[in-house]
Amino acid sequence: MWCWEKAELRPSPLLIALLSFALLGSILSTPALAQPVPSSLLAQKLQAACSFLKGLYNPALGLVRSTPNSSVYYIASDSLLAEKALNSSSCAPTISQGINESISSCCGRGNDGMHEALLGVRIHVPIDNSAIYTVANSTADKLFRNVTPTAAGRNYTVLWEVHNSTGVFPDCVSADVAVYTALEFKLEGNSTGAQHEMDCLNLMFDGRGMVDEPYKDGSGSEHGVYQTYKLALYLYALQATGSYYYGEEDALFRSQGADGGFHTGYDQLGTYAGTQENAETTSIAMIAISGLSTRGPFPFPFPLFSIPPWTIYLFIGLAATAVAVVITVIVLDKKKRRQQ
Predict the structure, then answer these.
(1) 317 with 183, same domain?
(2) Is there a single domain that holds both residue 283 and residue 143?
(3) Which end of the chain has a smaller Cβ tally under 10 Å, C or N?
């Protein structure tokens, strides 16, 4: 009679290691393989936002009002950013030129010491606190370019917010200030400074929006409400520094209203949280989205560079754990073989 020895089948430790790293590699590659935003969707978003901004434009004044029902016009940041948004998206270059000429008639380039960083213009850092100047007030007979209230449609006020006041914004406290500071450092060629600001921003981003100090401890419309323009600025900064990956724009898209304007804030459920649409938020969103439309089919040649830092740290920990498990299996296997 034949006697067969029962064979014990064990997976090879090397095979375990290879499978572990293959699984880890597939997980790490997943975020970068997210599908890019369809160009048709980007065009739709930009066109709708363009229509909203054109509705805010007052041709008599050559400026955009802050909100649809407002009679207040800001040189900066509203009109300054609207000029860029309408031009970069190529939806209303004539209106963009009209805004440029109107700003030039009173206020040079209209720069305010912060927002022009989005236009590739150098700013002073740390950024100073702001002061608001009254350029025109028709009720006080102080007209803008001699435009009467009748020609403008009603009484109006033209303001200019400039960052030249006493005191400075502290570092890594507010997401928008961190973005403008990062952009300035990038223009300077200060990669260390830019990365520091981006690290702060990456920590603020919770997957939905920017959780900065105003979100946590602010008052009124900022406390507990994600600010849409801060998310748009973050996306813009990610693109500018080469660390953007697809999927982060979803919350921004959901903030766009039916008329094309972007609501100023949203809650954790993604609803508008009772906020309205305005010129500044819509302009910044357009500038950020316009950058998305110029990207190739995939943002990076190697998936690892498209993953935010917190994800990398997580999977480094998982990789270390996997290596430890494999080493333990090998040691125990050798020990068992010696005993046998």
Answers:
(1) no
(2) yes
(3) N
